[in-house]
## 1
Amino acid sequence: MTRTVIIDPVTRIEGHAKITLHLDEAGHLTDTRFHVVEYRGFEKFCEGRPFTEMAGITARICGICPVSHLLAAAKTGDKLLAISIPPAADKLRRLLNLAQLTQSHALSFFHLSSPDFLLGWESDPAKRNVFGLMAADPDLARAGIRLRQFGQQILELLGGRKIHSAWAVPGGVRSPLSQEAKDWILDRLPEARATVTLALELYKKLLDGPLQKEQRVFGDFPSLFMGLVTPKGLWEHIDGGIRFRDANGAVVADQLSEDDYAEFLGEAVEPWSYLKFPYYKPLGYPDGIYRVGPLARLNVCDSIGTPWADRELAELRQRSGQTATSSFAYHHARLVEIVACLEAIEVLVRDPELMHGRIRLRASLNRNEAVGVSEAPRGTLFHHYKVDDDGLLTSVNLIIATGQNNLAMNRTVHQIAQEYIPDPVPAGAEIPEAMLNRVEAGIRCFDPCLSCSTHAAGQMPLRLQLLAADGTVLAERLRG
Amino acid sequence: MSVVTLTVNGQDVAVPAGASLLEATRAAEANVPTLCHLEGLTPVSACRLCLVEVEGSSKLLPACSTAAAEGMVVHTHTPRLREYRRMTVELIFAEGNHVCAVCVANTHCELQDMAVTVGMDHSRFPYQYPQRLVDATHPQFTLDHNRCILCTRCVRVCDEIEGAHVWDIGSRGGQCHIVAGLDEPWGQVQACTSCGKCVDVCPTGALFRNSDTTAEKQPNTTLPALLRTAREQRRWHNQ
């Protein structure tokens, strides 16, 4: 009899998901699927609303990265007004996004993923979390929490609140950065630098030791990578053009405009998941598999443009390849991006233009359709709005970073299951928890945010199921 | 000037003859809540939040439109009134589509403040989720019917202060809604002077400036009383 292993819910991610491992009658692994089982419907219920509300509404999609939606919505609004925002507003938005990347990456690394590396894959699941980390290494846990707080505090200093601020608006931003806020950021930067230095040292030691196998089998496969780059090909997180690079390092497409996303991105649908499967159109589905997010951004850029981050990027490339293809390298990439963010934050905060001049322009509706883009912590985020002549939305399409990693997450889970699940699985055998944890961890590499990607309600537990060929559930793990 | 004396919550108060019970309760610092009432505009008793108990009357009376009379004994905060006021606010929330988190009037909304005042933390009545439209045809302002509580402040300020009478109430019962002109798109109503007074006095986010985004609306509810007083006292040079 064939079997299916079910992991449901998947833990330490944002949203609801389950993983199923399908076995044939001999107990061999035939298929793995990462199911996203939540639905929210933002694209539908926003229809009929004024486009000026979209920054406030779409920020509510997610409590982890509301800033990403806020910025994408504000940028789309800028284009509907057909205006270029003032330089100070552009820099303030950049500062906001850098703080967002910092806090989200700190959350992913310290709170969600590091318990696996630092406490061990086989450790007690009840303690394999940030509280277990606090007990095992309180100084590291505290530093990680304070690094996230640093990013969160900048969000509050700019937007008035840590989450769900509506500070970025079509035309610019609502309020400037105060001198006190600027001083606070500069004051806390050295501590943030020290924490990421510590994390990098720790992580590199693990890569040289116990994590070597994970680096090899956690989703190491060729795919395209997509992300924003500056006109000169440097790392970018809010403007610039879209670049695709393949696993061999060749630039497949460069400086694409977000306006043309429908020409190069397709979205496939599978009946077993609410999460769509975007793909690079010229290669078709599913061959057009591509990855987005921190690793993709580092893979597509020529360099970052700041000294410390470029040194760390060089080391990442030395360890994981000029174009890193292992999904496990996402963890390393997150740390390198925190370095890039901290350096960029310092440059911005010391820039006199940040504090002077207009920060908001007001205009009437001048276009009926626009696409906005930003780099969210998890990858490239598109907002596409169509409005009537009164500015009321007639169509909304949101392409979320986690969705774009959907094909890659499925392939990663399959690769890990092939490596760690016994072949064949003996009839009636229980799958050890540590093996299932590694399958989950494959998903955590991508730090998926399913609340965003399905635009879903509630928390994000994960379920893993082992299914027989006839669909019977043979084993199931449910955690949340 | 003749006065009438009455008792509010056991306290003797004297108000000018012709004053409303609401003025009498305010003289007694009784703090009776209101939503539709606005100084400078004719009272209409639409929201029913200012209902008070008057001894000798079997009915609850709206304080805003009931004249204070000699010897009245008034109670403003009995358990029954508190319960009715909370129910009234719950019903207002359940009737429309009020989503504070993304509303232009968030933190500057009289309905939101009223929910806090009456102690409402949820609605005991099922939300109706009505299908309502947004009229964004005016070049400067937008009317979102989802947030309208039919207080008619916009109707009255446009008629009584601006003198343009753009707004009215259309339909009946649960279908009642604000209409512009002869139930036309607001942007096509020639009588509208685009003065913005209706936006200024709206207690919720139903009327707002097009450039307002979440929590940005800044109402100006003192305007009608200011203008009316200025006219009555002939403060303008050319009067």
Note: Residues 453-460 of chain A have pLDDT under 50 and may be disordered.
## 2
Amino acid sequence: MSTRNTQGLARAMMAPSVVLLLIWMIVPLAMTLWFSFQNYNLLNPANVSFAGLFNYQYFYTDPAFFQSVWNTLVIVVGVLLITLIGGTAIALLLDQPMFGQGIVRIMIISPFFVMPPVAALIWKNMIMHPEYGVLADINRSLGFQPVDWFAQYPLLSIVIIVAWQWLPFATLILLTALQSLDGEQKEAAEMDGAGFVSRFIYLTLPHLARAMTVVILIQTIFLLGVYAEILVTTNGGPGYASTNLAFLIYRTALLGYDVGGASAGGIIAVILANIVAIFLMRAVGKNLDR
Amino acid sequence: MARAVSSRRKLAATVAAWAVALVIFFPILYTVITSIKTEGEAISGFSLIPSFTLENYFTVQSQKDYFKPFMNSVVLAVGSTLLALVIAVPAAWAMAFSPTKRTKDILMWMLSTKMMPAVAVLVPFYLMFRDFGLLDTRIGLTVMLTMINLPIVVWMLYTYFREIPGEILEAARMDGASLWGEIVYVLTPMAVPGIASTMLLNIILAWNEAFWTIRLTTTNAAPLTAFIASFSSPQGLFWAKLSAASTMAIAPILIMGWFSQKQLVRGLTFGAVK
């Protein structure tokens, strides 16, 4: 069907997207790579010189670097675990017949539409605030001392906020997948005397595998770059306790004016993200081809 | 007997589901309630009964001028979505209707560009925007949002277009339709629902984008994300006012989101989960 003519037309139709994306990616990336080998500080922009690998060495030997990589991992893995386990449980619950399912769904999906700065500020001031937050009220009414979440458990607090934002997403996708499970299969398993647990392990879980892969892929893309939640709550602190790699680079660049150092950090972040991406793409590609 | 058991089970599921839903929804609900309390009430302990004052909304509007960031959000979200559609529709169309061996690779490559951490290119973009005078302009930010959402738009459109059966085209051709007639009378009506849901979802994503919108703006082009982030350091008694500002920032998109939840799943999973 596709003659040479339509092939040419197809290529012309794809060109703008492909070319624009390519330029939009390669030019800044090349600039980042170039800056990463320069001594370049925005406070002293006239004085730019070749730095070799100094910026990388500087970034690599900075103790904050390893902490931020670790924090990034904690955020990604922590949020993925909470949203996958919680999402599966809630999806199983929502799959039951009930009254007012439409309203329940609307309430559960809502946090996903809340912009990150608002989500973070709501949690910081309304929920987790050590004096005026709801959790402090609850603690006091039970006779406990209120917890100063962002001072005592800064990273955990970030994980909770981000998990709250992404739990609806995982739930909705897993629920959709659950609803496409063949009812007859379920009934047959039930008739064969399979209990809830074995039905879940041998029937439901394999069926959800594909949806879970998609959840992991998409959430990881966004979780690697968590930024606004940190900016408006802890600002990366105390110290570097809640600084992830994205936030460390931002600190170096726009607070330290160190273009060279931030660029080296950026290149390291790209390499790390690519390692994650290769694994994910492979897993997802396999799962999607089925 | 069986009916009694199943209705009891239904009741139990209802109670459990409502409890979970209320816990998850609570932060939003409490924010809306606090927004109609007085500042005094807002900090005097837990209470779900406000005094229904609209004062905070007026204060936020007059002190911080809510309308400007709101309009910026609208312009950026809608503008970048339309621009992305103009670029992406032909590409997705070509990929869906005359795929080659490389189509899948191109799609995967596009998705992989989303994996590039935004901060890695923060410095070059910041410097380029500064040099071209695009910092804190609506145009600069619209282009930025267009480009970062373009891969997702192409993907979503592709999954919708792929489901339009090719035989319909052949049938139309046999009936003597011209290429133009094909596009206008046969394909467009079938493609509109997919384009509409892509648009809706992309507006939501653009509205909530909170890295570039905060970093590349200060006042003129600052949308609601930046407006809200400016509340991050408490200013005296501000709980009720913060709640009012937050409610106004999320309400429009929350309501849009409720209507789009069906398309949300297939859109954001690139058609992998339906």
Note: Chain A touches chain B through 101 residues (CB under 8 Å).
